[in-house]
């Protein structure tokens, strides 16, 4: 019975993630979904709107960064079975994203709007490429392990919940964090940039680089010298020759 419950729980968590990420693509791009990142200014003053939006983004950032830390996982898995630890992380992150979409307050003041249709097409293409890089990167890591399905399936089959070892392949030969690169492209590729979109992209960019710093600190402790060598020969975000960049890029 526990195996079936864990399998169901992991499946629901994965569906929540899929719903959240698909809605997020429309929310950020301003397409298809009923509520997007832009729209009429919400009733409170602009200053209060900024505070509310930053708190919403901060709630997701804190949850993500705290629950992803090895020390927290070590404590958390004394309460939550290891088989559903990742699914619980995914479900919490997905619900916080849905809260963000629901409670987000637009700030419609425009900083720029590109009217030239070839330029618009190029930016929309870049937006799509960003999301393709995101999804492709998840499969390079192990998509189903990243979002908790592999763990519950292995538990259902009576197999140990083992983590997939780090593999330097494809995009990971060029940059250490292609997943985050994809998000950055999608967040900033905007034919129309409003103050609300700028706030979202700016806060998320700060969070991404802080998350990378935390993750690399953990990876250096866990993997040691092999990761240090990998870090020395690849760029952080931009796919530049190692001699042309630095650890900050």
Q: Going across the major beta sheet, what is the strand order?
A: 1-2
Q: Number of helical segments? A: 10
Give unreliable regions as ranges.
Answer: none
Number of domains: 1
Report on this model:
By secondary structure, the protein is mainly α. The protein has 10 helices and 2 strands, in the order ααααβααααβαα. The chain has one domain (2-244). It is 66% helix and 3% strand. Strands 1-2 form a two-stranded antiparallel ribbon. α4 packs antiparallel against α7 and α8 runs antiparallel to α9 (195-223).
Summary?
The protein is mainly alpha-helical and 249 residues long. It is 66% helix and 3% strand. The chain is built from 10 helices and 2 strands; from the N terminus they run H-H-H-H-E-H-H-H-H-E-H-H.
Reconstruct the topology from this structure.
Blueprint: H1 2-29, H2 46-67, H3 70-76, H4 82-103, E1 110-113, H5 117-141, H6 143-146, H7 149-156, H8 178-188, E2 192-194, H9 195-223, H10 225-233
Antiparallel strand pairs: 1-2
Keywords:
mainly alpha; 66% helix
